[in-house]
Amino acid sequence: MSGVSTPSGPRAAAPEGPGRRDAEATKAVILKAARYLLARHAHADITLKAVAERAGVSAPLILKYFGNKDALFARVMSFDTDADDLLDAPLADLGRHMVRHVLASQRERGTDPLLRIAFAPLHGDHGEILRANFRAQVTERLAARLTGPDAGLRAELAVAGLLGLGVMYGIARGPHLRETDLDAIADRYGTLVQEQLTPGT
């Protein structure tokens, strides 16, 4: 993991079971609620109480799982896990995969792996952490997979295409885009993204 402002420490091996699964599901709900609020409010204005109410849990439970507000939002401001899924395809098929993943994340899970970077200006100094994580974990990581000239520029252009898609789907809520089959969009828009990843192929 590179350039991340997330807490780390030793993890005790935990047995899999209903309790473990419930805890992981609750953490996911809390993170989703924090992301939702971070995309709409300045970091300084978000309270643990607001996150708890959005997630349908208690504030002490958030403290139990994440320690404090800063630790929670350090997780929210990291793109590392999202990038793992976003980039999980061979380079020759990556454009289509990324397009489909962005849309499926919004349509099926109500989240977007990239879109919160658009709200960095809301967050003051924390916005710079968000930008630094985004560069290190998304665009620079993608660029490292590319061959040929201008890899950094091509990676940023490819990701810009994904961000535009996410804005049109999730914020502008384009009706034609939202009504069209995911695979059909991935086939059409994925070629545009792929042209930046493997130009001329």
Task: Please tell me about this protein's structure.
- There is one protein chain.
- The chain has 201 residues and is mainly α.
- Helix content is 64%, strand content 0%.
- It contains ten helices and no strands.
- The chain has helices spanning 18-38, 48-55, 59-66, 69-76, 80-86, 94-109, 124-143, 151-170, 175-179, 182-197.
- The model is unreliable at 1-17 (pLDDT under 50).
Brief write-up:
64% of the residues lie in helices and 0% in strands. It is built from ten helices and no strands.
Strand percentage: under 5%
So how many helices? 10
Global geometry? globular
Regions with pLDDT < 50 over 5+ consecutive residues?
A: 1-17
Can you give the helix content as a percent range?
A: 55-70%
The assigned structural class equals mainly alpha
Spatial separation of the terminal alpha carbons: 31 Å
Assembly state here? single chain
Q: What kind of sheet is the major sheet?
A: none
Strand segment tally: 0
Tell me the series of helices and strands, N- to C-terminal: HHHHHHHHHH
Average pLDDT figure: 85
Using only CA atoms, what is the Rg?
18 Å
Layout of secondary structure:
Layout: H1 18-38, H2 48-55, H3 59-66, H4 69-76, H5 80-86, H6 94-109, H7 124-143, H8 151-170, H9 175-179, H10 182-197
Task: Quickly list its features.
mainly alpha, 201 residues, single chain
